[in-house]
Design brief:
Length: 600
């Protein structure tokens, strides 16, 4: 389902023609008869005239309270926060109040709003493709250069797409369109830390139950990832406890150190679940493959972060459809909500200095981080803007970031050595502008900020899955990215992420007796980095040859020779493979875009 919203009192005949040519129909009009809301699925929208000059609308997939709680006297789109907040827990909300438009998606960005302005006419849509076909933009080189960076703060750069003139609405904001003006309006606020551990666990479980019950209300059977890891498996435990029928799926690693296969099989057997197992992920992986992207919806998105898993997801989508499910749950968001994050130490210190010192000693031994570095991070009182300014200055001066900066508001931004001077300048210019005028942080402290930012990233992954696999009819969801689950976690103490015996103690307490008593006991974590190293070893010679010509180099973003060397012989850390993977993903996208531009 696609929709668009457009200001109506401007001469916009060309834009109207452009929307109609894409199969969109007008479904809401001003009192004078001018259309302002358009969709290709008129039957999938609820539209209500509250009183003359005031209309609200949202997709009928919204299931929850609020439909009958519409203020009947509101004359300002800013006063619709209560209703908009309820609806955008899971869906979109739009309103027209005397010609001023409000367009809002979800905090996690699974339902994201994009917008562009051309000839003084703002148009908003849930699809980049709708706006792309209206304005025919060029590739944004700055956005592509930022994509290649190994670390970025998410929030201040969240408005970028890979197309000049097409913007995303910032996380935690709604879009206000008035005449020829379009601007972000902040609605989100950090709820603060007011729950003790047990209260937090109850709040997490209550909100997770609510998210799962709402999502499954119209589905007889759903499917879910059962990796054997804590997050997706926890969803299975809660679904089982709620009496919901589900089909579990998983893939595996070739690494002998990854024990999630054994754990998944053990859980499935204990609970009597029929586990559907696909081939190991390494047998699907296209991490270092330059084969052209053939999905047009994927190309509008730009380089996709999960492109390496594409072949596995192709098979998974087919298997899900075969199971009879049209709703699939993933465990995305669990690490961000319940595990250690780089900003944890500062937030712990604000909560309790003695408690923070104990956990710093634990991190010093368990993660081999220098205690002095963590203590400096805990004591550092820089604001969000001060941190951004310091990171920006370090980039400009090519100075090495202080080690403690890795545990502050934002990660150090070190421009890879294989960037060209032009590519470096693009990144520095963009980030310098942001550092000078940053948005207010989404979180009140570094841990909350990083948690919210990470959830918005994971929501974007879900949105892209829905775009690329739209033909399958599958609704991809991650209940741990639900706004009420997020609020419950944010209201809990930072120390709720640590326990001497259990991993993810707040999640363990929330799931409670629905899980085996020892499921969350500390153990070695599963990962797939061994698989990536093996694949790179097999492909690096051919990849080096295939990059003898480079679209990235043609755009002036990278030094061609240095980039090829980085792909062939990445640094010994996982970060080196990250660089190589991003180079290949961006190169693949650029080559594919060039091949299908005429079909856009």
């Amino acid at each position: 389902m696609k929709f668009a919203v457009m200001a109506t009192h401007i001469d916009s005949s060309r834009h109207l023609e452009g929307l109609f040519s894409q199969g969109l129909k007008d479904i809401a009009w001003t009192p004078s008869g001018q259309p302002w809301l358009f969709t290709d699925s008129p039957n999938d929208w609820y539209v209500k005239t509250v009183h003359p000059g005031v209309e609200i609308a949202f997709p009928t997939d919204y299931r929850g309270p609020g439909i009958d709680q519409v203020p009947t006297t509101s004359s300002d789109v800013d006063k619709l926060d209560g209703l908009a907040g309820q609806v955008t827990r899971t869906s979109f909300f739009v309103a027209n109040v005397n010609g001023v438009l409000r367009v809002q998606g979800t905090l996690c960005t699974r339902k994201q709003v994009f917008w562009s302005t051309e000839d003084g006419i703002p148009v908003a849509s849930n699809k980049i493709s709708v706006l792309h076909r209206l304005i025919r933009p060029k590739i944004d080189r700055s956005a592509l250069a930022l994509y290649l960076m190994p670390s970025l703060p998410q929030q201040p750069l969240a408005d970028r797409t890979h197309w000049k003139g097409i913007n995303a609405v910032f996380a935690g904001n709604w879009l206000k369109i008035s005449g020829s003006s379009a601007r972000n309006v902040r609605w989100w606020s950090d709820p603060g830390r007011d729950l003790e551990f047990k209260e937090g666990a109850v709040a997490v479980r209550s909100s997770l139950n609510s998210a799962l019950l709402n999502a499954t209300a119209a589905s007889d059977i759903v499917s879910v990832d059962l990796s054997g890891g804590m997050d997706s498996t926890s969803l299975c435990f809660v679904l089982h406890d709620l009496g919901r029928t589900f089909a579990p799926f998983r893939t595996s690693s070739l690494s002998a150190s990854n024990d999630e296969t054994r754990r998944a099989h053990g859980v499935a057997q204990s609970y009597g679940w029929s586990l559907r197992e696909l081939r190991p992920l390494a047998e699907y992986s296209s991490t270092f493959d330059l084969a052209p992207e053939t999905s047009v919806p994927a190309l509008y998105e730009g380089p996709i972060a999960w492109a390496a898993s594409r072949r596995y997801l192709d098979d998974l989508a087919l298997a899900i459809a075969k199971s009879g499910s049209n709703l699939h749950f993933m465990g995305l968001g669990g690490d961000e909500l319940f595990d250690y994050m780089p900003g944890t130490v500062r937030s712990l210190w604000l909560e309790s200095a003695p408690r923070a010192l104990g956990i710093i000693r634990h991190l010093q031994t368990s993660r081999r981080i220098k205690g002095r570095t963590l203590l400096r991070a805990a004591l550092r009182g820089d604001s969000y803007q001060q941190t951004l300014e310091r990171v920006s200055l370090a980039m400009q001066q090519r100075t090495k970031a202080d080690a403690s900066d890795r545990y502050s508001w934002v990660p150090p931004m070190e421009i890879p050595h294989w960037f060209s001077d032009e590519g470096r300048a693009l990144v520095i210019e963009k980030f310098s502008t942001i550092a000078a005028h940053p948005p207010a942080p989404l979180g009140n402290d570094p841990l909350a900020q990083q948690t919210i930012e990470s959830i918005t990233f994971q929501g974007g992954v879900l949105r892209q899955l829905s775009e690329v696999y739209a033909a399958s009819g599958i609704d991809w969801q991650a209940p741990l990215t639900d706004i009420e689950v997020l609020r419950a976690v944010l209201r809990s103490r930072a120390s709720a992420r640590f326990h001497p015996d259990n991993d993810k103690p707040l999640l363990a307490a929330a799931v409670g007796s629905a899980a085996p008593h020892d499921f969350y006991h500390k153990r070695r974590r599963g990962d797939f980095t061994t698989d990536v190293h093996v694949e790179h070893g097999k492909r690096r010679r051919a990849l080096f040859d295939e990059l003898s010509e480079s679209a990235l180099a043609d755009l002036g973003i990278v030094d061609h020779a240095a980039m090829r060397a980085a792909v062939y012989e990445p640094s010994s850390t996982d970060l080196g493979l990250f660089d190589a993977e991003h180079i290949v993903t961006a190169e693949r996208w650029l080559r594919s875009v060039e091949q299908i531009t005429g079909r856009n």
